[in-house]
Design a protein that fits this description.
The protein is of the alpha/beta class and 221 residues long. 36% of the residues lie in helices and 20% in strands. Strands 1-3-4-8-7 form a five-stranded mixed sheet, with helices on one face. Strands 2-5-6 form a three-stranded mixed sheet, with no helix packed on it. It is rod-shaped and about 105 Å long.
């Protein structure tokens, strides 16, 4: 049945029940009950015409889904809205991250002596950073670093178990290159995010981020 024919059939079925096109499911059921009672052959001396016409109309509307009450959207449980939260790292956490950047510190992800030597050399050349707070929006993480990103090599220590049930995981040192200096945002590549940040959907690092930047994060929709 073509859409236009379908609409016409609905209008005719409603008219057969004595209803207008704006009738709702409750109106249709009430009209059918009234007609079914008064037009029943037991009340019309055996005449089936009115009853049959009304039943055909009601059956059509029922198949079209017009006789069932639709759930009230206002009564349905609402999906909980995600809220942004800010986690301020305490002094011990910040100091632990800083200790991992010191020249004589053995990096936890060094897989062999050569890698350890390379990382040790890089410590003296790269600008080092430690976050002061972590913004969470669902599974999206934003690390707030007060220091500005520097041109060239940069190293930042990031706690990685923010989304875990407990925050006991060892922080990770990430190294990246920058072509500019100052404020900015770095997005951690998916390959690294999947390995080092369990459960995170995205990971960003904001540099030269002050208290105002954190407040803006919490207030932004």
């Amino acid at each position: 049945m073509e859409p236009v024919d379908n609409i016409k059939a609905r209008v005719e079925a409603l008219q057969a029940l004595g209803l207008s096109h704006g009738a709702n499911a409750s109106d249709i059921r009430d009209a059918w009950r009234d007609i079914a009672f008064h037009s029943h052959p037991d009340h019309t001396g055996g005449d089936y015409s009115g009853f049959s016409k009304a039943k055909t109309a009601y059956d059509f509307l029922r198949k079209e889904g017009l006789t069932a009450n639709k759930p009230d959207k206002s009564s349905l449980p609402r999906r909980p809205q995600l809220k942004k939260r800010l986690i301020d790292l305490d002094a011990n956490e910040i100091e632990h991250c800083r200790s991992m950047l010191r020249p004589n510190q053995v990096l936890p992800h060094a897989g062999n002596k050569q890698r350890a030597a390379e990382d040790s050399d890089a410590q003296g050349l790269a600008s080092s950073h430690v976050p002061e707070a972590i913004g969470c929006f669902g599974r999206e993480l934003t690390y707030f670093v007060a220091t500005p990103v520097c041109e060239g090599s940069n190293r930042v220590v990031l706690p990685t178990s923010v989304l875990a049930s407990c925050r006991k995981g060892e922080p990770e040192i990430l190294t990246f290159q920058s072509k500019s200096t100052g404020a900015g945002e770095v997005v951690v590549p998916d390959a690294i995010r999947e390995r080092k940040f369990p459960g995170a959907k995205s990971v960003k690092i904001r540099f030269e981020a002050d208290q105002s930047s954190r407040e803006t994060f919490c207030l932004a929709s």
